[in-house]
Amino acid sequence: MCNLYSITTNQAAISALFRVVNRYVGNLAPMPGVFPDYTAPIVRTGAEGRELVMARWGMPSSAHALMEATKKRAARLEAKGTPVGFKQLLRMEPDSGTTNIRNVKSKHWTRWLGPENRCVVPFNSFSEFNKAEGGDIWFALDETRPLLCFAGIWTNWTSVRKVREGETTNDLYAFLTTEPNAEVGAIHPKAMPVILTTPDEVETWMTASPDEALKLQRPLPDGALRIVARGVKEDPAPTA
Fold first, then answer.
1. pLDDT digits 0-9 by tens, 68-107
2. Residue 41 burial by Cβ neighbours in a 10 Å radius (0-12, 13-18, 19+)
3. Predicted model pTM
4. Could you tell me if 104 and 59 are in contact, meaning their C-beta atoms sit under 8 angstroms apart?
5. Could you tell me which of 151, 235, 134, 147 has the C-alpha nearest to residue 187?
6. What is the structure's pLDDT at 74?
7. 105 contacts: CB under 8 Å, gap ≥ 6
8. Is the Cα torsion angle 203, 205, 208, 214 positive or negative in sign?
9. For the chain, how are helix, strand and coil distributed in percent, rounded to 5?
10. Cα separation values, 111 from 108, 117, 141, Å
11. Category of 186 on φ-ψ map: left (φ > 0), alpha (ψ -120 to 50) or beta
């Protein structure tokens, strides 16, 4: 599961590569470490064409997951003798979101697989954790860490992300995962992000039918990625 990545390329380069028409990100600073629930740039299709916007990392969790979490919280409160209004408790159940999506056949995810809810998530490198190998292991196309993107989905959603924030409405995103290639599998054998490396792949992901777009849910070829850093929480590469 990829729960850490970097985006250090400037917004002008991002806009040029992904043919962005409008930008709504302000002064986009380099982000050598993007963690779950952080706000980071995505490219999606807007009314006037592709737009670069900021969104929070983590799509809404499933109703089942939230129900189970609420039941556990209700049980703890009842054990303390605290009155429980379950419906309100469920509404206010904190949900920091789901960052990585593998089972695209789930009804929870199929509603967001149309082109209007697809996005690409720019990145320069991503990390998988393996304590025996040194902790956070950073992968990129090569040592120069060229700009790539994950195949993502997004939505606008009202929920409680953090208790102290209460109920808020946010643009949220996550990206797809798949089985790992050789390099990632040696560190994290369960999964790797779905990575798009060519303009044609980006165009397919952003515009094609779900059946056609989901053919991109596959690992990069073996040998396509390199380990560029070990044991650091942020990618130490120079910004571009």
1. 888 888 888 878 888 778 888 787 888 889 999 999 999 9
2. buried
3. 0.92
4. no
5. 134
6. 83
7. none
8. positive
9. 25, 35, 40
10. 7, 9, 32
11. alpha
